[in-house]
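Cross-check.
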Amino acid sequence: MTLLDECPRPGDHGCFLGCILLSIAAQAAAAGPVPRFDEVPDITYQDAAVFREVFDGAFEGTRHVLLIGDSQEVCPGGAVDHYFVRLSAELFKRYGNMPVTPWTGMRVTYGGGAPWGHWLMRASSAAPGMTAGRVPAEDLPPRFLPSKTSTAGGMNVNDNQAYGYMVQLQPDAASSHPGGGLAGRWTYFRAGGGVYLEVMGATHAESGEVQVRARPNDVPAPNFFVPIAGTYVTSMGLRDEEPGIRVERVGPLPMGGRRYMQAEIAGNDPGRLTDVVAARYVSAVDGRGMVLTPIAEGGYTSASLLRHHSGCGPVLRAMGVDAVMISYGANDAGQGFTPEQYKANVEALIAWLRESISPTLPVILLTDGPHSLVTPLGAEYLARYAGANHQIAKGDPLVASVNSRALLERAGWTQKTNRTFSPDGVHYNSEGSRLKASIEARILFEHFAPRRELSHVRPRTLCVADFDGDGVVDIFDLIRFVECFESVACEDERSADLDGDGFLDYSDWSMFMNHFEEGCQ
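Predicted model, tokenized:
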């Protein structure tokens, strides 16, 4: 018997959620104390097959995962855009491809540095353009603004709108946060001779349809005046009195030999308004891989999504979600949420997500690292959120819990060293982002795609610290590693990039020193 079975599901979300919270409270009273992160395993799950379908399955076809959290997960506009970028890069490193871009909302200009670009995308909202839409804000995910449009070009019912919303595909992530170290480094998305654009719209009794004008460009900066290579109009049937969310794929949009596709999104009828919710690009060439769409906002806690966006379930369902990752903690601890309160909030969120998206939705719980600004009591609460996630996974066969906090501690990110990875005590810098993303991806792929994990890393001795391969861990291994790390003398079959992420950084140094000090025992 699950929470969804016990609670009725009327149209009133408040009644359903109230029942869920009461059920969770009753279960928590009998569950016993919540353990600390150093008292639970690195990863907890009941059925690996549930998550292998997601991770191993993405080697054969597209898997779309929502990344739900706070300012650590927000992109664009978050305090640490590069954590999202680094986690996306960890997926690319394993799959060798990004089949789609994240979903992005309308009306927000990003990619010029304030804020940095979304992963694989840059966007521009020029005035007069889209205006505040008719969809209630609580019916949209965080950072997806209500947006209405009419035809681009002026003389229309949307205040004579002149410009559509411009979304530029950047296969090389040219506008992503430089802290990620990935902008322009590789081609992540295979555009080939053309790409598709998926557009999401909301129905209305007097709605128009969506018009997309393809404007391929040679430079990674939006330009409304490059020639139009093709015009497309959706047939979603958005003129409907029944409220609803609909998606249509248009294209392929012709690249014409250009590097960066631009899609100018507007309405198709100067006498009608159209509510556009989101858009994303889809590769017409390669569908392998996994993409993350961040559903997050700065300052959010485990209770915020339900509190402020309880009606956004239809939008999430329309996104085509295969799994979700949930990562809260710093703000919960800062606001004094006990481990029991945090656990109840996360369980209520999971129940609502399954009601909204799918009753068999797989969920992966991640934890934050240390936090230097909370009170001693808040720090103790934060240390037990991993235990709360562990308890949730022990009771739910569709949940996996990654004890990121314990993994970070062993990699050298402790309360004492927190400012090295988090200068303000809360948000990750580039080193913190790389370390957290790499250890989370590594353990997930080790358990849920074991045949594929680290297949790109050259074979080497089983003991990381036996760097010279002579079967003995001694000072000569340290000397050889330091030389290789500093690129003074590194043989072809050796690499100081121990975590295989393409960078020589603190993560590699920490991994070697931990094994060296322990003698690989």
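The longest strand covers residues 245-254. The chain has 14 helices and 16 strands. Passed to J.P. for a second look.
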